[in-house]
Each structure stands twice: as structure tokens, then as C-alpha cells.
Design brief:
Number of strands: 7
Strand order of the largest sheet: 2-1-3-7-6-5-4
Largest sheet: 7 strands, mixed
Shape: rod-shaped
Order of helices and strands: EEEHHEEEEHHHHHHH
CATH topology of the largest domain: Beta Polymerase, domain 2
Structural class: alpha+beta
CATH class of the largest domain: Alpha Beta
CATH architecture of the largest domain: 2-Layer Sandwich
């Protein structure tokens, strides 16, 4: 779907690609999950190569900047909540040609929707500035979305920490690995985004220039902070996993110790009953003790249990 937004006589207008040649102000073209036909139409109306746009919507496209003769291309990664309710990152490509800013993405991203939901007053304020300011606003909203998700991840890490100390379940391990997977995606994407902002600051893109270029230093600092936060969360989860494995090992040792104590209680009485259960003709306790042989054997069993209990009690095993 293609959405075209521009400014005319101080008002925010929406139009079609057929009007693009007549528009003198800055133009936003947002295209989400474009079809081949839509890309070809955009190419015909704007002069942007179809191949460059097709590459831009590849979900494996890494963050980067490319400066062509007639336009500049910028790819930035943004967070996206997939159907499994896990956060991943997907590329957002911005192509700048003169007064035209083309946004391409294969997903309906919250950050882009937030820009679309700006009231007319704020849109007018953005459109009245130069292209550099508009790019800054778009990238800033993506970075802010990362920050909002980082708050959710912080809460998730806290819940995992509490769970690790309270109970040990397979669900806890799955939650740790799922969260670590998300953090790996974020770290990889944020590192690439950092390089994109560095390239913009160094003016590697001819379409992005002017006094608003200084604003990208704020974005750079924010991305560095996000990278540090992601690394911190990963370290905490690694520590939580180590604690989980240690707790499971300790619990197993405790179970083995209890089984050992139980086996010791049974072992000596079993030995005594085994001895007196042998079928030999001459056994002193049977021939000489008469009726006292059976109580004697039972007493030996009880005494062995008491001695075993005292032994393990002093060792602190029970």
C-alpha cells in the first residue's frame, strides 16, 4: 500500500503518485509490504531503480548507507513483534531523492505507525524543515521504540530472576533462551544502526546535510546506551542461567543425600535379617537362646537404626 503525504498552502495533504511531479514541497511516500507492481509504479514516477527498492525490502538486508548518483539509500533496523510474541528486528529503508523521502518496509511497524499518527500540526512542523530533520524524526522514533521495548525486557529479566530463586521449571529455561535470542537480534541490529548514524554524521550521504545534522549526535548516544543496556541484560540472564543450573544441581545432590540416608536406615536391618534368614542347621541363637532369638534380632535392627540416625544427625545430613 502506498501513502503519499506532502504540504500545500500550509496544510497536510494526501495524494497519489500521479501528483508527485507537481509537488514542490517535501514529499513522504510510505510503502508497507509493497508488491512488484507497486515498486515498478514508484520507480516509474520517481526515477528510483526498481532493483534498489527490491533489495531494500529484503528482510536479510543489514543496516547501511549507500550514495548513488541521483539518490541516497539508508537502511535502519527496527523492532517488530512477530506472531510468536517475540521481538525481532526488520529493516526499514529510506530512499532520499531531492524533496522525496521514500519509506519501505515489509512489516507494519509501530514506529512508522506512530509517525503516521502525528497530528497535522506536528506533521506541518516536520515538513517545513529540511529533509535531514525529517530523517532525524523517523530514526528517532525507531530508537524510541527500542527504548520502550527495553523497559519491557527489563521487567521480563526481573521476573526471570525471581522465578529462578523460587522454582525450577522447563518454562524458566525456555524464557531465558527466548529472551537471550531477542537480545542477540537487538545487539546485532543496534550495532549496525550505530554505524549508520556514524556515516550520516560524517556526511557520507549527499542528501543529508545542513544544520540539523548535529541532532544525529543525540541519536548516536541513545543507540550506545541501548547497546550497553542489551549487554547488561544478557549478562544478567547468563548469571540467572548459571544460578538456575547450580540450583538444579544442588537439588539433585539433596535428593541423592536423602536417598543415601534412607538406604543406610534399611541397609543394616536388611543385613541382620539376611544373616538370620540363612538355612543352616546349627545357629547358636536358635539352639541356645530359644524364645529370645527373635526379639534379639529385632532389637539389633532397632539399635542399628538408632545408631545410624545419631551418626547422620551429627553430620548434619538430617
Amino acid at each position: 500500500m502506498i501513502n503519499l503525504t506532502y504540504l500545500s498552502d500550509g496544510k497536510v495533504m494526501h495524494g497519489s503518485l500521479d501528483e508527485i511531479g507537481k509537488i514542490k514541497s517535501e514529499v513522504w511516500i510510505k510503502c508497507i509490504s509493497p508488491s512488484k507492481a507497486e515498486l515498478k509504479e514508484i520507480s516509474e514516477k520517481t526515477g528510483i531503480a526498481y532493483e534498489d527498492m527490491a533489495r531494500a525490502i529484503d528482510e536479510n538486508e543489514r543496516p547501511g548507507i549507500y550514495d548513488f548518483e541521483e539518490y541516497s539509500v539508508l537502511t535502519f533496523h527496527a523492532p517488530f513483534l512477530n506472531k510468536n510474541k517475540n521481538y525481532v528486528t526488520v529493516p526499514v529503508t529510506i530512499i532520499i531523492k531531492n524533496n522525496v523521502i521514500l519509506l519501505l518496509s515489509t512489516r507494519a511497524l509501530e514506529s512508522l505507525q506512530n509517525i503516521e499518527l502525528l497530528d497535522d500540526r506536528k506533521k506541518i512542523d516536520v515538513l517545513e524543515h529540511d529533509v535531514t530533520f525529517t530523517i532525524y524524526i523517523i530514526l528517532s522514533e525507531i530508537v524510541n521504540h527500542f527504548f520502550r521495548i527495553s523497559d519491557e525486557l527489563d521487567d521480563a529479566v526481573d521476573r526471570i530472576e525471581e522465578t529462578v530463586f523460587r522454582k525450577h521449571t522447563e518454562r524458566t529455561v525456555k524464557a531465558i533462551f527466548s529472551l537471550k535470542k531477542t537480545l542477540i537480534y537487538f545487539h546485532k541490529s543496534l550495532t549496525g544502526n550505530r554505524e549508520v548514524i556514524t556515516g550520516i554524521e560524517k556526511q557520507f550521504l549527499k542528501e543529508i546535510k545542513g544544520r540539523n545534522l548535529k541532532k544525529f549526535r543525540y541519536l548516536y548516544n541513545d543507540v550506545i546506551q541501548l547497546i550497553d543496556m542489551v549487554a547488561t541484560y544478557r549478562d544478567i540472564l547468563t548469571g540467572s542461567l548459571d544460578i538456575y543450573l547450580t540450583s538444579v544441581s544442588n537439588d539433585l545432590n539433596e535428593i541423592v543425600r536423602k536417598l543415601t540416608v534412607m538406604a543406610a536406615f534399611v541397609m543394616v536391618p536388611t543385613l541382620i535379617s539376611g544373616i538370620y534368614g540363612m538355612n543352616f542347621q546349627y545357629m547358636p541363637e536358635i539352639h541356645n537362646w530359644g524364645i529370645y532369638g527373635y526379639p534379639f534380632a529385632l532389637g539389633m535392627m532397632v539399635l542399628s537404626i538408632i545408631i545410624t540416625y545419631i551418626f547422620f544427625k551429627r553430620r548434619g545430613w538430617i
